[in-house]
Write a structure and sequence with these properties.
Helix content is 72%, strand content 3%. The protein has 129 residues and is mainly α.
Length: 129
């Protein structure tokens, strides 16, 4: 079974121009075409697209994703390199999460601080102080 670019766009919430861009950049090298040149996405292509989106959404650059795709195209001899690349990315993502957690703690603290300030303001307004 094959999916059109419109169907893939609807399933993934990616605009068709984004899918075309990913293909142009070499991130979706396995998408086939009909005799008329219409893109035909397979289930494997959708799975691959899911990985591309995951990597992009976790901060991997298009260039690095392309490097990863190129390694995949070279076959099993690059499995170690791909694992190393994903491990490095995982460490980067974990660091981003730690940083975001610090920011979240600060925001949480400020919510508590301003909530207390607001309660004091309301109380003082009600007592006329």
């Amino acid at each position: 079974m094959y999916y059109s670019i419109k169907q893939v766009s609807e399933q993934t919430d990616l605009k068709p121009h984004v899918l075309r861009y990913y293909e142009k950049e070499g991130l979706l090298p396995f998408v086939s075409r009909s005799e008329n040149g219409v893109r035909r996405y397979s289930k494997d292509d959708l799975e691959w697209l899911g990985l591309v989106c995951c990597l992009k959404n976790t901060g991997m650059s298009i260039k690095k994703i392309k490097d990863f795709v190129d390694l995949c195209a070279q076959g099993d001899k690059t499995l170690k390199q791909r694992c190393d690349m994903l491990l490095e990315h995982k460490r980067d993502v974990e660091e981003q999460i730690r940083e975001m957690y610090k920011h979240l703690e600060k925001v949480t603290y400020k919510i508590s601080y301003f909530t207390e300030q607001y309660k004091n303001f309301v109380e003082s307004s009600e007592t006329g102080a």
